[in-house]
Amino acid sequence: MSEGKLLYLCRQGRTLCLLLLLGGTALYINPYTYNNFDLPKTVWISFFGLLLVGLTLIALVRGRPFRLSLSYLNVALLVFLVINFLSLVKAQSWSLAKDHIRFLLMIYLIILVLQDYLNGNRRRVMILGWALVASAFLTGVWVLYQDFMQAFAPGRLPIVPRLSDWRGFLSAGLGNTNYIGDYLAFVFPVALLLYLYVRGKVREIFTLGALGVLYAGMIVCWSVTSNASVIVACLVLGFMLVRHESQRFWRRKAVRLAVLFAGFAVITLFYTTNHRLNPHRPSIFREAFESERWKAGWPTRLVIWANTSEMIRKNPWLGIGAGNFSYRYVQEFSPMLFGRPDLIVYAGAYTNAAHNELLHLWAELGVFGLGAMVFIIALFYRDLADGLTRSGKINYLIRLCAIACMSAFVIQSMMNYPLRLPTTTLLFFSLLCIPIVLKDKTQKARSQFLLPLELDYGQLKITAYVEKMRIPRELEFRFLPTPWVAYVLVGVMAMGFALALGLSLVPMQSDYHYKRATILLQYDAKADAEQEFRTALALNPEHSDCRSAYAVFLLDEKRHDEAVHHLTRLRERLVASEIYLRLGEAYMNLGEKKKALENWRIYFARRPAAQYEYNQLYEWVSLELDRQIWAKERQASETSTPAVPGTHDQPSTPGSPSTATLSSP
Prior knowledge:
This protein has helices at residues 3-24, 38-61, 72-86, 94-118, 122-152, 177-197, 201-221, 224-244, 247-252, 254-272, 284-289, 292-314, 325-329, 341-344, 357-388, 393-412, 422-431, 434-437, 443-447, 483-504, 506-522, 526-539, 544-556, 560-570, 577-589, 593-606, 610-613, 615-640; strands at residues 66-69, 450-457, 460-467, 471-479. By secondary structure, it is mostly helical. Strands 1-4-3-2 form a 4-stranded antiparallel sheet.
């Protein structure tokens, strides 16, 4: 293959990978895996991220230059990545920490290639913007279809609801209405700006339809945070546009704006009035405010924030380690929950995030990680705002759109956890590239030219672009090996990346076998199900959900010694209270009463509300532990001083354990 053709294929391949990453991640699900949403998206990002990096390196070997910006924002991102690596020393679960850092490193490599791909090319920025709008449009259509199907053809959707109201049937490609609402809100400013400035009736009609679908989708998702974020983003957008555009511009756009607001009004009336086509009769407001999920939303967040604050209080400077939030959260119990029966029922329940990104970052990475992220966002706003005053029209609109999108993200991150989800994590870090890649072409910008300084290291050529003869702004790498060396390197890299791509699919393959095991159990095919469990764990020994389900299977089969092995191994990645309940059962059946009592003590200490579900077990554990404490006190008293009658407390009655007995470990 000729060098020109290879470089052309690499260039087209990189474009396709970036379109699939930014426009396709939100839409990709895998119905053949147990986890249909997050795991497939993580694998999707890893697969196409590796392919993107591989194509970039192959193009570099064949002579294509690679540019790396030395902006303050890139330095801050590197510092944030290093802080995540250093937090390994604080992680109780290295397995979870390594998973988190591995994914974060892949995101970092993707945005470095994205910066090189977009460097000074506004057309490519616009293409990716259109891809985002198309993806959000399809997501909105998907969720509206599910909403209507559940209302008018119940039972037709292949969805098992995990929520108590209509939102349990709305998953689209993201799995949860909060995630869907956040995604639609994030892309809404992009669609709005395109609608205002696009030329051509077809594009105008498409963007108008996209805005209508996004608006309706956010209504049915009923995510307060998502809707608040899009309102803030639109206010920012409107304020800046009013300052920038003339009255003549607004007169020309008056018809478009009137059509848009009329459409929004019609959609609002459709969902808030009582008619036969409304899937939420008589009004979505009434249905939402009467739902159990609405009533539980605030108390659950209060409990999560209280326990997260307890984690921060104990580890304020260095945190608990990247990726370890869910591992440590179930071990915490905030004192503010005492005396609050409305809150204590949620104590000890598993959660995967703090539902507030600032608290989450502080808990995992300490003050330094939190400060690095705040600094990154502040730099982002500063760089974009600084460029507004000296940008051409298109650059100005791109910068303004990025500011609005980031504003939506910031609002969402106060109540949700967009940086814990693969789609929004990729979008957030990709958005940070905008102030880095835009090259202003005004007279003032051209006057600040960059002087190239070339460094020669044999076959590697490095060009440093310096501003004002002293400030390095960019590095350009060019590798020019001899033809036979280039052929060998391309071949080796192609084989290496092919192997890496195959390995990136292994977690999804493991989850496929796990799902087969759960289906086979429903048909009582226990031998086949166990084989699927074993295959899944052989492919991915760190599949905690599969290992947990297999341990339950072993308990049901009375193979308690094997169950103990898997439950103990499971605690490397998961210490949810249910594990201690099952360990207690296994140890008790193995005749190890002391270990069973200790595990049950931990279970009831972390889940106070469980005493009502397992009342008899709770009373027995309390009585046995109080007897042990009483016996130890009596033995200590007899070996030290003569006992004085009446000085020892009697064992507490069943169901009334002492505070020391069931205190949280």
